[in-house]
């Protein structure tokens, strides 16, 4: 895969070290995966704290100065108070005093995982099957964080000077809303973060499974809960059914009014500020390595949204006119990507308070809460969207003429992020990919949210780059999460090459 | 409360025993409640089996012949196989060989209960507060079953001859669908059940909190699951949202089409066979002791279904014409009762497969299942209703033009039941209530389902009576279930008096 001619001579021993010690690097990831750092669960909070200490020890052993910052406690919904995992700050100065400073972000907490959910192997035992390393956190985000540790080792063990000052910010609550994290980052603006030149985040994935990419945009997210209360307790559905305005009936009517089966958001005004897609942006999508057939197969569906002729035409006429062509290449592909990356989408998460287990429970819940979220894109303003959602749900509820009680709650939103890619940070990352893969990466956006990207950009005022190493089929957040061995190893090389090129662009 | 003049002399010592030993009878209920016989949960299955053995021992100690019938195993949704609790059959012959035979039914399993759900006391420790006995199963159905044990004691300890042959059928899976129970009852038609003259079931509640009632009708129930699958795994809502026809969006659209916010069932044909309300039936409702204000307060709502003028008018014009009056008494009351008892209602239980916990989970579920049920009334045919539901959902799903996969599953339904009350069984029960309360009971129906009522009627061909002893505010199936001490004690007397009157009508 590596085109030898592209590898700068300084990197040859570094790459050779990584290849020779691959098994040891995988064992290191296994050690990380074995710590059950599920940040959402109270019972695994000690492990989530422990993983931070474990990683601090690893960095200290490599000569980094490390601080574990206490960011206080979390008040759980049940009233329990738990200590938050500390945030890790670490620095390693380059020998050259004029070296640039790279800030690396990662997280060591993971999503919940239980074998009963459909895992084929123990989620906390990294298990290699056909070159795939299965385990919770393998790709999100323990694999990439270990990649940085691997890269440091590869330089140090081969006596190669690390050509940039390295700083790390690693957290343990990313999967659960990063409580207290943003406040800490803002408070470090004039101290720990004052001299940062570039920011790199490895916490996302390639668009496909074979071609690397650099990511320059993310959607934001606004999460809502719409709660309807019909009774001050649960009611037997036989004894009361037929006489009560049931909360679940009202809630269903409200959820139904949020989004139609074509994916159109029905809340008035929500689409008003969505940035118009430019011809340049559309043209960039056309060349991206993305196979919609493979994507469909991966999901297990026969048809995606926006694949029907009428949908495509409705969305494409203006782009055709702008570009001045009667037919575009990959009509479907570009539309799919645009709707994953640069258009908002509304997703109904589920209902809290109603029966959700197997079998039958014939109890009318007194209070139910529907959860939904809107993925936000430039130039949507989260506060304006929240106001539109509340006004709409209130008005639609009034139309139901129900005696029930409505409340709409919204959690702190995260804003969308789009970066300029014409800078040294992205150039160095492109060269790094070329050093390892012999070809340029795609420039992609992502539909998910990594709020910290925007926070780092705002606080440092410097370029933020997302540099993924895992594949699109890694099943982050899902059952049987994995990272391919080759992605983990070549990803380590990309990170090592990236700091070399950062110092030389 | 007891009007002494109404108490037959034979019952005086029996009633006196019950009053004198009230604390001991309460302690017996506490013993029953302490056994965690939650039939829905695998971990409490041993307790559910134990409660049957415990009750068998109690009956044997009183001279009954008891058999615990093995009805096989249950295959749990997770593939686990569990033994079903045995069904208890017991008999006690009267001294008089010409005595009639009464069959008593009850169950000793209970609904799940967890202090965290909002119980003010430990649900498995019977706790008396201001004359209320709180505990899971206190009223449903351990209280009434202990009432029968109490009644036997009251006869035996006072050397009063029990004037009827007693038979008991007690089960341990009632709260979880009575797996295998109906088959057993049918198989006993020509043996254990061959000589039954009357059937009594104590497994429901008074309509209010002060006046006893006898119950002659129940609604049936048909439970459905409508499953939509959009992907063969869960999907990250950021990465995939906007490109996938989400199962939850389709499911919401289908659930929305089931019932409107006025409680009207939207499935074509479902109302076709509902028996027309007669003037006689309506007139009976008018005199029933039911306070709709109290009912509203108990629920915690400002308005019930069918309370708005337009709804009342739409439903009442025909009854007014039939009766020949321009205005009916208690317009609202009768409507409320009718919609609880003799009209079908559709209830959306909730969604399985989507996020239902506190907080936020941004994962698009690959498959979701919406659960709902229709309470059935005479003369609805469950099979016809099921066919209508499947046809309707299939047609409505087709309108969504979705590539997703739909399946509708229906569980075995239970049929509605309405009994003729002009017989010795109801007459004896009326006299029993008069003996204890000095007044006649109301004749009521119930909105819930007790499928075994119809099964016993069909298998024995004899009169089935529902004889409740708990109050409407007992919170069966809910948090803080209780039975009032006075209901438990006076209920025991009613059961004792009932067998006396059965032998003498």
TrEMBL record, chains A, B:
Ranges of residues in domain Peptidase M20 dimerisation: 217-398
GO molecular function: metal ion binding; peptidase activity
Family affiliation: Belongs to the peptidase M20A family.
GO biological process, one term: proteolysis
CDD domains, A to Z: M20_dipept_like_CNDP
Keyword Cell inner membrane: no
Name recorded for this polypeptide: Peptidase M20 dimerisation domain-containing protein
Keywords: Hydrolase, Metal-binding, Protease
């Amino acid at each position: 895969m590596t085109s030898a001619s592209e590898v700068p001579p300084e990197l040859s021993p570094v790459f050779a070290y990584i290849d020779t010690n691959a098994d040891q690097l995988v064992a290191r990831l296994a050690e990380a995966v074995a710590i059950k750092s599920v940040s959402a669960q109270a019972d695994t909070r000690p492990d989530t704290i422990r993983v931070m200490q474990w990683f601090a020890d690893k960095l200290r052993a490599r000569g980094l100065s490390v601080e574990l910052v206490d960011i206080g406690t979390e008040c759980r919904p049940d009233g329990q108070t738990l200590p938050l995992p500390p945030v890790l700050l670490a620095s390693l100065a380059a020998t050259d005093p004029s070296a640039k400073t790279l800030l690396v972000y990662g997280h060591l907490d993971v999503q919940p995982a239980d074998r009963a959910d459909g895992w084929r192997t123990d989620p906390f035992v990294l298990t290699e099957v056909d070159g795939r390393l299965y385990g919770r956190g393998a790709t999100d985000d323990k694999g990439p964080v270990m990649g940085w540790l691997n890269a440091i080792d590869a330089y140090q063990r081969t006596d190669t000077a690390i050509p940039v000052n390295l700083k790390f910010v690693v957290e343990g609550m990313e999967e659960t809303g990063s409580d207290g994290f943003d406040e800490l980052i803002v408070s470090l603006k004039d101290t720990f973060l004052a001299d940062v030149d570039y920011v790199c985040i490895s916490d996302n994935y390639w668009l496909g499974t074979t071609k690397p990419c650099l990511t320059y945009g993310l959607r934001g997210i606004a999460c809502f809960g719409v709660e309807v209360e019909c009774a001050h307790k649960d009611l037997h559905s036989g004894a009361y059914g037929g006489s009560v305005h049931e909360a679940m009936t009202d809630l269903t009517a409200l959820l139904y009014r949020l989004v139609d089966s074509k994916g159109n958001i029905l809340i008035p005004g929500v689409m008003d500020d969505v940035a118009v897609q430019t011809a340049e942006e559309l043209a960039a999508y056309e060349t991206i390595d993305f196979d919609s057939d493979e994507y469909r197969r991966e999901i297990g569906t026969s048809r995606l949204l926006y694949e029907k002729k009428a949908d495509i035409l409705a969305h494409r006429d203006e782009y055709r006119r702008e570009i001045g062509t009667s037919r575009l290449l990959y009509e479907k592909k570009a539309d799919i990507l645009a709707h994953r990356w640069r258009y908002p989408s509304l997703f109904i998460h589920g209902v809290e308070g109603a029966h959700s287990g197997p079998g039958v429970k014939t109890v009318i819940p007194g209070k139910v809460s529907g959860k939904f979220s809107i993925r936000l894109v430039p130039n949507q303003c989260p506060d304006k969207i929240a106001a539109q959602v509340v006004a709409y749900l209130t008005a639609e509820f009034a139309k139901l003429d129900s005696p029930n009680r409505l409340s709409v709650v919204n959690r702190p939103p995260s804003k969308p992020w789009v970066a300029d890619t014409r800078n040294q940070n992205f150039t160095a990352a492109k060269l790094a990919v070329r050093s390892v893969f012999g070809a340029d990466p795609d420039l992609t956006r992502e539909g998910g949210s990594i709020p910290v990207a925007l926070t780092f950009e705002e606080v440092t005022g410097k370029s933020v780059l997302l540099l993924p190493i895992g594949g699109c089929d890694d099943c982050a957040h899902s059952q049987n999460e994995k990272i391919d061995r080759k992605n983990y190893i070549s990803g380590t090389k990309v990170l090592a090459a990236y700091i070399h090129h950062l110092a030389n662009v």
